Amino acid sequence: MKKKALIFGVTGQDGAYLAKFLLKKKYIVHGIKRRTSSINTVRVDDIYLDLHTKKDKYFFLHYGDLSDGTSILNLINKIQPNEIYNLAAQSHVAVSFELPEYTSNINALGALRILEAIRALKLEKKTKFYQAGTSEMFGGYNKIQKENTPFHPKSPYGTSKLFAHWITKNYRESYNIFAANGILFNHESPLRGETFVTKKIVNGLVNIKQKKLNCIYLGNIYAKRDWGHAIDYVEAIWKILQRKKADDFVISSGNQYSVKNFINITASHLGIKITWTGKGIKEKGYDQHGKCIIKIDKKYFRPNEVNTLLGNSSKARKQLNWKPKFNINKLIKDMINYEYFNDK
Ligand code: NAP
Ligand code: GDD
Questions:
Q1: Confidence at residue 300, expressed as pLDDT on a 0 to 100 scale
Q2: Does residue 285 lie in a domain region?
Q3: Does 53 participate in catalysis according to the annotation?
Q4: Would 288 be classed as within a structural domain?
Q5: Which domain holds residue 104?
């Protein structure tokens, strides 16, 4: 019998890669999409439309929202999934300072609503639950972060995710539900949302190269992140749910770059040589022709910043037999190629 998976957040970056990964593994995949005024299924349209023309359908979309507990319960009851992946979130850290209550409702209470549905429907024995946790929960106080590093979130986003992390553990310990947390460090891809820094840089520099844009405006370019590729990270997510006993895992590349490093590497792949001048909000990046292509805008600084993230994923590498295939150069090349050859 085919396994059934239910993905909250299927229309997002990770949801789209995970849906494709699970279909290859012969799962029946159900995904939850939100009602929006413009179509938001662009990342999964290829699998959705393809399957319209086929007789056997293995990919289904349903309307739902993490703010609506009854709809969550009804969907889980109807689908009776073997695995639930909670990837849905208001996932933008800077936006969470503008929308703290909404962010908490979706990210914190949303996870609780799914867990409560599993409990109310008595699906403990049938349904495994994955919670999309984040390195933002650490806050960057330690040089390297792993599973037992103390949490100290620095944003409403990180704080809301910490609630989801603990409620997942709590339901595992209290009700014997297979409920597992991934603590994922930043992961990017061609499908990354356009307002995250890597996509903004790649998109911006490709457009500058193609003379469609003059300049990109950024915030804190000295923040350091541990960046991986979403393709590698969704494989780890799946592996976390294939274990006999639920547990929590850090997933990271183990390499760290600053935002400024990321800009320089991307530029070099595009044949742009950047010269930097000035400091603070006056810092600027010039191309080899003396044209200013990077400026700093203070509106992109956050009220509180996680300055450094670097993960130690040795537990996952050992116990899940997981290791990433992409390094920073392969990631950036993949993102650049997509900008060049898709919808351009
Ligand atoms: P993303 O691209 O922003 O996708 C988020 C998904 O959640 C989208 O499908 C979105 O729907 C959906 N969503 C938002 N609000 C919802 C609501 N109220 N009800 C139902 N669905 C809702 O995020 P991602 O990068 O794929 O990340 C996936 C998960 O991993 C998120 O929970 C994120 O916080 C977490 N995470 C991400 C990273 C990373 O570096 N990417 C690292 C650690 C943890 P729309 O398409 O309609 O907006
Ligand atoms: N978004 C953005 N836009 N970030 C900028 C900019 C800019 O113009 N300029 C500098 N940055 C800096 C941010 O201040 C941050 O330090 C870093 O670039 C990365 O920002 P994001 O790409 O927005 O990612 P994030 O690290 O805040 O959050 C992402 O990773 C988390 C895991 O650590 C998101 O995917 C979260 O959902 C995820 O949990």
A1: 98
A2: no
A3: no
A4: no
A5: 4-190+227-255+308-326
Q: Residue 274 falls within a domain, yes or no?
A: no
Task: Tell me which residue has tokens 């547990």.
Answer: 247
Give the Å distance between the CA of 78 and the centre of ligand 2: 37
Q: Is 136 a catalytic residue?
A: yes
In tens, the pLDDT along 247-266 reads 999 999 999 999 999 999 99
Contact predicate 4/80, CB 8 Å: yes
Q: Residue 93: what residue type?
A: V
How far, in Å, from the CA of 188 to the mean position of ligand 1? 12
Atom of ligand 1 nearest to the CA of 34: 47
Q: Three-state secondary structure along 102-140?
A: HHHHHHHHHHHHHHHHHHHCCCCCCCEEEEEEEHHHCCC
308 is catalytic: no
Catalytic one of 27, 130, 157, 233: 157
Taking the CA of residue 136 as reference, the ligand 2 atom at the shortest distance is 33
Residue 250 forms part of a structural domain: yes
Q: Do 311 and 255 meet the contact criterion of CB atoms below 8 Å apart?
A: no
Ligand 2 midpoint to CA 10 (Å): 21
Distances in Å between the alpha carbon of 70 and those of 36, 116, 119, 271, 335? 19, 11, 14, 53, 39
CATH number at residue 102: 3.40.50.720
State both tokens at 194.
């356009």
The torsion of the CA quartet 87, 91, 96, 99, rounded to 10 degrees, works out to -70
What value does the mean pLDDT take over residues 70-90? 98
The 3-state DSSP class for residue 143 equals coil
Residues 293-341 have pLDDT tens digits of 999 999 999 999 999 999 999 999 999 999 999 999 999 999 999 998 8
Residues 146-199 have pLDDT tens digits of: 999 999 999 999 999 999 999 999 999 999 999 999 999 999 999 999 999 999
- What's the total number of domains in the chain? 1
Pocket of ligand 1 from Cβ distances under 6 Å: 8-9, 11-15, 32, 34, 36, 40, 65-67, 87-91, 106, 132, 134, 184, 186-187, 193
CA 37 / ligand 1 centre spacing (Å)? 18
Nearest CA residue ID for atom 29, ligand 2 = 186
